[in-house]
Amino acid sequence: MIVLDGNSLTLDKVRRIVMDGEKIQIAQKSMEKVIKSRFAVEKIVSTHKITYGINTGFGKFSDVEIDKKDVHALQLHLIRSHACGIGEPFPELVSKTMIVLRLNALLKGYSGVRPLLVERLQYMVNETIHPVIPQQGSLGASGDLAPLSHLALALIGEGEVWQDGKRIPALDSWRSKGLTPIKLKAKEGLALINGTQAMTALGVINWLEAEKLALQSEEIAAMTIEGLHGVMDAFHPAIHEARGYPQQMAVAERMRNILHDSKLTTRQGERRVQDAYSLRCIPQVHGASWQVLDYVKEKLEIELNAATDNPLIFDEGETVISGGNFHGQPIAFAMDFLKVAVAELASISERRIERLVNPQLSDGLPAFLSPQPGLQSGAMIMQYAAASLVSENKTLAHPASVDSIPSSANQEDHVSMGTIGARHAYLIIQNARRVLAIEAICAMQAVEYRGVIKMSTATRLNYEEWRRIVPSIIEDRSFSIDIEKLSLHLYDHKAKESIT
Prior knowledge:
This protein folds into two domains: 2-195, Orthogonal Bundle (Fumarase C, Chain B, domain 1), CATH 1.10.275; 203-492, Up-down Bundle (Fumarase C, Chain A, domain 2). Helix content is 55%, strand content 6%. The chain has 18 helices and nine strands. The protein has helices spanning 11-18, 28-47, 71-82, 92-106, 115-126, 145-155, 170-176, 188-193, 197-227, 237-243, 246-259, 277-280, 282-303, 329-357, 380-396, 418-450, 457-467, 479-492; strands at 2-4, 24-26, 86-89, 129-131, 134-136, 160-163, 166-169, 312-314, 319-321. A hairpin with a 2-residue loop joins strand 6 (160-163) and strand 7. Helix 9 packs antiparallel against helix 13, helix 9 (197-227) packs parallel to helix 14 and helix 13 packs antiparallel against helix 14. The chain starts with a strand and ends in an 8-residue tail after the last helix.
């Protein structure tokens, strides 16, 4: 059981909740803060103190006063009008993460919602009721308004949810549980949708997948090194200590550990003095990607515990401040940075694939790893496919955060586009995983020519595991199926050990 208190959520705790299915409970002290902030909102309503989003309109309508009798209807209209999400829905894992993050933010006690609402969000997480949320439509400032409105729709019995793996109307879900939809009261609609939880939720899933991918990229690269009789001297600790980057040193150490008992690697001068950069510079390039992962983790874990709605209520209602914590620029930058880091893991992987299939570079391997070069093409077009994915990643890696389009009659005149950045990062990760699957297929074929019995203990275990999914290339076949199967296995396969 993981306790949410608004202040101590971590990436690992999110993983345990959304991927491992751990239940959550709400810290009592945090619930007390929620109650106090709700009392402050009710006091504002009763005294008709003009406060943004409670008794005023939204955005450019912030100067329009709302009559006391209409403050509840204001919130309902807000959710319905802002639920303009379009496109395919986010993966269910992302939807669940959005609920967890929104709940955690509300538990900080600055948002003014009722305990009933936070308890219902807790129920949705624990009972696996997840809103269907379209991916497109957020500008990433003023909060992820459109996506979070679809989350809020589920609470009020509108829209759709996933329940027990089925996509059903939200109202049917509540009825099946013997519950009634939430009727939003003052401030609650705004508190639900003013925030960065769409981009941050997808950012969390991206990071968790990118971490796993980065570890797997080292395991796959190690097998390629064996297939190409790579020179181990490039991983000597003295080289990496001389430069001083901890992540670079860590990658070099892991490569040494993976390959420590291999009979297929070589030493400087045995077959060649030094390898090409895609082998020799694995610690430097992969290490730089790990630096980005560390940066992104830091920003995400701040945002996991951030109050990002507007206005925020302090001093038990004595101080209510309109600000801009909903602006997604920090996460927008982080996602754009993550895109580049993962794209580079795929880029250097594709170069290693080229060395495995190119007879002028592969140190005696059959051309394109073909069982009958000329009659059969072997892995020739797998390299084409990898190159295509890498090229697509270059387009997706263009920073979303450098763009901004004004909205709400120029009241909201600068936005982050952070959700677009997160979505593109997700696509880059999928592409990179397929590139790495292609490298693994080619590396397995290469080590078969070199002698599987000479592999290191660690790479041999991977070889045997992956060979159960992708058989040896003894004749040309449709390799599309193999790539997808191994890519899916890499996605589902739990990383052997998190190093964070």
